[in-house]
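worker-03 picked up job from queue 'complexes'. Input manifest follows; two sequence lines, order preserved.
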Amino acid sequence: MTDSAELGVRLACKAMATRFELVIRDMDASRARAAGEEALAEIQRIEDQLSWFRPQSLLSRINRGAYEKPIQVHAPVFRLLEACQDLHHQTGGAFDPTVVPGEDGLPTPGIIAPGLATVELDARHRTVRFLAPGIALNLGGIAKGYALDAAAGILREAGVMNALLHGGTSSAVAIGGDGEHGWRIGVSHPALERAGQVVAHIDLEDASFSASGIYGRGRSTAEGWIGHVIDPRTGRAVRHTELAAVVTYSSHGLSAARADALSTALMVMGGRGPTWPDEPSLCFSDNRISEMSGPWRPAPPLPLA
Amino acid sequence: MDRRHFLKKGSLAGSLVGIVGARDAFRIVAESTASRRQPPADEVVRCALIGFGQWGRVVAETLEDLPEMQLAAICDTYAPMLRRAQRAHPDATRHTDYREILSDADVDAILVATPSHLHRQVVVDALAAGKHVYCEAPMAHSVEDARAIGEAANAADDQIFQVGLHLRTEPQYRSVFQFIRSGAIGDTVMGRAQWHTKESWRRASPNGDRERAQNWRLDPALSLGLVGEVGLQQIDAASWMMGALPTSVTGFGSILLWKDGREVPDTVQAVFGYPGGRNLVFDATLASSFDSDYETFYGTFSTIMLRDQKGWMFKEVDAPMMGWEVYARKDKFYKETGVALVANATKLDALGQDPTADDPNLKSPLWHGLKSFSDNFFFGPYPAIADQNLGFAMTVLADAAKRAIASGQRVELSDSDYAL
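worker-03 finished. Artifact:
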């Protein structure tokens, strides 16, 4: 069918203000591309649904109307919101997608939102209702993983058995592995990246990965860098932990979404120990790995003062 | 079926279609039905969706935003699609044989989103079973199948038959249509439409039979190609704006990027000739996404661009002043300034919404198409705006374009070619 015996493909698209990329191995290139295109289209469809910035998105519709009356949502989105509730409980409130929007419509730092407890989900009618005024859902902390989960499902349905997908390098899903050491993922840190090093790496096979860090978005102040990760319980920016990463051992269901939520929660909770014993996690602060569980392979001692 | 027939199809058809020529019929019917009434409380159209592929899933999701349309059943022949249906629409029953659904007296309407070459059997059977039918565009992959569907729809006089040509029911297009018809852009001298993307148009599946079935768009015997499978919406809208159906089509097509053994061109150009020497130039490609998709209508006073359900007017310096454009929002497009045309501006203003901001409640053309179908259910049946005549004419046109592209020859079309 093809004019070459080329295998595999690498495709990318822009969505959710970042770059999503996927690599498919062990499949005829034209078929791999076909599968990959459908997966990327799914990611863009989910962005249309869950975008905070698009007034026509389902999320915006919920945020505009859910205090006045219950808003009915699609079954998959309802399941995502239920998962958010579970993750909120499992993390003692450290993961919380509710925010108090400011004048500009964006989440306001320094204000404690009434929290996910004030979001009522009615499974019978598949509706969402806000029990408090002035709150909104911002799924930015979980949407990338959720989109990757959906895209991985599409790839598997198309017969892909060996692939890696990532969103902005901070969330990833590995389908299968290459038989030897799986898909090798490195956790990077700006200071180490310059020296061509990683904090640690881990080999993934049918697993999902997520990392959160205070680097990237944020601002520099006299007291140092203030990142964009806010502790929902205090309303303050997280400063004690620079980076947190979590692996969930599945590439099915909402596993990448779960990894996303857990890495944010771990970041917020800092060095208080991993709460999920079977899911490898890692925290980094003060130029060292402060917490680690699971088969991470730390890089050689860090050349930092 | 508990339905109210405020208007009878026969009488309306008699008063409108009977007195005008075939070409003008579309226009006049289009103007007669802009119903946005509330459906009777607690009454719903119980719908079954046949075909849960990529477009079928969009249809199903759009129905969730139309409370008066209830998705009662989903049919697909491929098990993984039914599993997706279960995840996304757990309340709908699932079937692998659409005939099971046709015998269900509780189902009012059948929405057909199968591959184009499978429309005929489903539509004909559904109409014979007494169901109202909404059939995705193109209505069929061949003129022969389109005729069979059209004849079945003609015979089912008291049932709705609507084709998924949506732009004639989309408010921005309706507003621009009236604007052009009022003479606001002067004489329309030409039109241009494009659809550009970079994707293979291929599908993959671990199941070989499924994969062959899925790639019907790349099968020259089953596919109308880029003009018929994607361009038809834009070409239909352009024909509506031009007020006529094309009398000729010339086409070109090549495979320039996706040299994977396919025979259906990945890049096409077609020139549609309209009465009075006006042409519509259409191009589509799967090899470049530059500038995406939109339509432009060039008039002697001004040009209108329709893009993403938005419209802009670009005035000539010698065009008469209309007054309101002074206050309208203006957007820069390189060196040109477009005056934003906003459908329902007065209404939005009255609702306290800024007419120049993006409308948060904007609905897709598909939503408006399905809404006109449900309106027809509650207040009709009357002839659909996109009825079998339009669906047939557009299939004839797509088939002519396919032949023109394949042969490199100009294909002439007359009124009799378009007559069902």
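worker-03 released lock.
The radius of gyration of chain B is 21 Å.
The first helix of chain B runs from residue 9 to 16.
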